[in-house]
């Protein structure tokens, strides 16, 4: 009996907490400083990039000021530069692409994660969707030129003929324009939205779903009233990332959007984005135009930061509602 008591005391001593060793303290501090260093490097790189772009854009900032954002002219010969048309094209095309690609992305995520397909088949479909993200941008642009634009021309002609009085269809599609760019862009952001949304739906506790079904909810009611609200912060994160991808997309839009400085509501009129402006004008830019292009790059960076900040704020509100 005494022997068993002594052995029990020995086992308790083996698992009793002890003071951390010098090696434990040193390794803990090392990991902490590595984490701080990595975060500091990221912050430093971000500030350094902003500083370099702002330094290169300073001549244009002094010369054009705020009228740079309300002028639609980009005339190198007269040294008159403005990016209102590019800002409009960037936001308009990105919002339309997010409306299409975001809706389909969330729908695909629900379809693949809520038992509509067998598990093995859903994994195959998920792999196919994620493979869309691996296709180079220039390939999407070529596909848009040779497939999307010819397919849209008869539709655009019919809409313009019968509904041309509506601003959305006020012009007909004769070549590159906003509609083919939006369609291709929506396909490009779809894998991002679908993959992250599916992960968000997968993190919804199984007990929550079982409780909804146990109360007599149908699958549709469970998805709309339980699963979507519970995973709303993750879905919002997916939409924000998809919107950021759309804002910064360059090559495919430069090939498809038409690159014309104009502000138009028509889906079939040519337009221009900030990214396509930089891609098409930067290689042959002189010193004055280069400063204006860097000013435009600074504006694109500002728009992206503001969008991400708004998205982070909405995500924080969603998490607070989930906690309540």
TrEMBL record:
Q: Does the keyword Nucleus apply?
A: no
Which keywords does this Swiss-Prot/TrEMBL entry list?
Cell inner membrane, Cell membrane, Membrane, Phosphate transport, Transmembrane, Transmembrane helix, Transport
Q: Which residues form a coiled coil?
A: none
| Residues that span the membrane, as ranges | 33-51, 91-112, 124-149, 178-201, 222-243, 292-315
Topological relation to the membrane, as annotated: Multi-pass membrane protein
Checking CDD domains in the record gives:
TM_PBP2 (cd06261)
Described function: Part of the binding-protein-dependent transport system for phosphate; probably responsible for the translocation of the substrate across the membrane.
Q: Which PANTHER family match?
A: PHOSPHATE TRANSPORT SYSTEM PERMEASE PROTEIN PST, PHOSPHATE TRANSPORT SYSTEM PERMEASE PROTEIN PSTC
The record's comment on protein family reads: Belongs to the binding-protein-dependent transport system permease family. CysTW subfamily.
What name goes with this protein? Phosphate transport system permease protein
Originating organism: Pseudovibrio japonicus
